[in-house]
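Hi team,

Filling in the usual template for the complex we talked about on Friday. All components are listed, including any nucleic acid strands or ligand strings, so the model treats them as one assembly.

SUBMITTER: L.P.
PURPOSE: interface mapping
COMPONENTS: two
RESIDUES: 600
SEQUENCES:
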Amino acid sequence: MMKDHAKLMQAFFVSGEIVGRKKLQKMIYIAKKLSFPFQEKYQFHFFGPYSEELTLRVEELCNMGFINEMKEKKSGYTQYRYTITEEGKSFLNAQAANPMPEVEDCLKDLNTQSSRFLELVSTMLYFEGLDEQELIEKVQKVKSKQNYTAEEIVQALSYIKHLSTVS
Amino acid sequence: MAYSTQKLHEEKVFKDPVHRYIHVRDQVIWDLIGTKEFQRLRRIRQLGTTYLTFHGAEHSRFNHSLGVYEIIRRIVDDVFANRPEWNENERLLSLCAALLHDLGHGPFSHSFEKVFELDHEAFTQAIILGETEVNEVLSRVSPVFAQNVSDVIAKTYENKQVISLISSQIDADRMDYLQRDAYFTGVSYGHFDMERILRVLRPREDQVVIKSSGMHAVEDYIMSRYQMYWQVYFHPVTRSSEVILTKILHRAKELSEKNYTFAHEPYHFLSIFKGAVTVKDYLKLDESIILYYFQMWEDEEDPILRDLCRRFMNRNLFKYVEFDPSKEYKKLNELEKLFELAGLNPNYYLVVDSSSDLPYDFYRPGEEEERLPIHLMLPNGELKELSRQSDIVDAISGKRRTDHKLYYPKDYILDDSSHMEVKAKIKSILGLE
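RESULT (copied from the run log):
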């Protein structure tokens, strides 16, 4: 019951503070691509893989008082910080949800990366069926505005390999 | 003459209750409509189980797909034609992507995709790129045309302007379904001045924007979305029918995994149960097929599958109580135990349904670059995000209302012929006394 909410709560619990909605979106997408059992459905949008379902579920968790959302004004945009509340921890304890211990290392690792870098990694994972050269060309086309450097792309490829060792 | 520019000898028109007429002059479009994959959409309802709440909601994805095509046709032929920011070479691609954008939808696709972890967008791409009649037509335009159509629908095409026409926060898809769903459900929400919006759409480098003089028409459109969501798409009775449908599919899958022998072999489901569905298998599925199995399963030996199918077919749906997870999650754990004691499997008969279970895209002003917002173009050419200019939009694009309901079979709980004591406790918790 409310298993999908509980899985997200576990993600917040193990990640600690998550800064930024974009980062949150990409962290869950990447974890899902690494076969962690998150159920939120993603589609490709202007800024990469995005899940409306995740956005709504996080809003629900905030409205329930299980997640704290702090709004910060930045130059030209608003940034959001997410942390689990004490009530959220109690909810999580009361759930008979299967723990996902192996997701902890993965999410912690993802949480140390910038949202720009995670946007690149998640976009590359979205096109994972392509061979490496096609993948690079595709990313440069769909992300032309982001101006990712060759170095960032190489880093992302190596990070994807690294992720498979922590998952 | 190249196939891509070939016109029909005479324009074809489809009568349509929303747009009055749908006009087809391009041979490619006419040929696509005639393919068996597109004709299959006649057998997939646009609104899934909503017909159990609003009896008129029997319209199909075929109707809707033609409607989206017609809106794009009017934009590219009447509004964008000859504008320097618009590339005429993208015209046919935009029309084809509009027509085919829902091609991969399966029967009752929301529940189906959840249970079997399928993705209609992936099937849309697979149908467009696979060995299908649709692919055969598209490939006659050029060797890369099918891939381009697929990329537009997947939102990965390099020209974002074309994507934005078909899929953005104000796009042809939404403009058609809001009006069409309002018409067929019979509700008085969902109406807005589409002609006005189309007249003020302008192509810009990476997106389609709205002239600021059209702001009030867009406000109406945003309000329509908001009202249709709460009044139609998220209607509690429709949610109940979706809950039962989802549980039927779960049960059938579970039984199959346990090697249960179905009295009526679910031939069409076999590859889906195994997680190995091919495009060919998928295209054989439509809502008539699914309802056929539900009718057969009304006589299955398994009591849960039998009961759920009878409920769905005869519209004996679950009832609901409002549920506040933040205060009542412990109550839910208790109810689960009591349901077990009352002989009801809580996995099938006690269901929390949340607003996030039917994600409907509220207008979002694009915080932190999550989604591209609607941009108004001021007279000096400057772009402003809609909610910064409109108080009405600002008011409904802030903190969203969320909602949770607890669904259960009230008829069984009120039946005192068995488990009286346990049911009395359940009734007390659910407030049925």
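MY TAKE: Chain B has 23 helices and nine strands. The mean pLDDT of chain B is 93.

Thanks, L.
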